[in-house]
Amino acid sequence: MNKQTNKIKKRYNRISELPGFMDFMIRSSWRKELLRKVEGNILEVGVGTGSNFAYYPLNANVTGIDFSPKMLEQAAKKLAQSKADINLKEMDAQAMDFADNTFDYVVTSCVFCSVPDPIKGLKEIRRVVKPGGTIVMLEHMRSNNGFIGRVLDIINPLTVRLTGANVNRKTIRNIESAGLKVVSQRFLMTSIMRELVITPNK
Description:
Distance between the termini: 28 Å
Helix content: 25-40%
Strand content: 25-35%
CATH topology: Rossmann fold
Largest sheet: 7 strands, mixed
């Protein structure tokens, strides 16, 4: 694990017990809509404190990974809230320990604001999702509005220092650079927060 990744990991370990810290960006209705159709062998990248667990369908088979052991400790407390079969693993999204073409669905929620090398992480997702598989994301990113985008650029060093999260990532460009195709996107909070449906170009 490189120096920058370890630094972000320590920050997420530190904030893991803050009540509601990882939930304020995402409404429960968005999570419910994102997860209602997932099926088969599912990977959730960056499970955090397990805020998605209650919304997985009955008997879904989910592997959840996070690079923060403290986040996983909090997530484990929420396993009983889920109807799904969820297995948690400590793992870096930039170097996943899974075979190629393993998962039918990959899920992320406000993850690619904090992955130190987002394109590397997205390429790993492309590698482990099956041909014809689907990636669904709730992600915040740099606004399409020029003024708001510049404001996010200005405050970004502070948000990274405090939480490890970048608020000005150009996530759509990163997705495309990783060899993935955005099939649909829905703006949830202007252009900053979006629901994305993505397929791998394989």
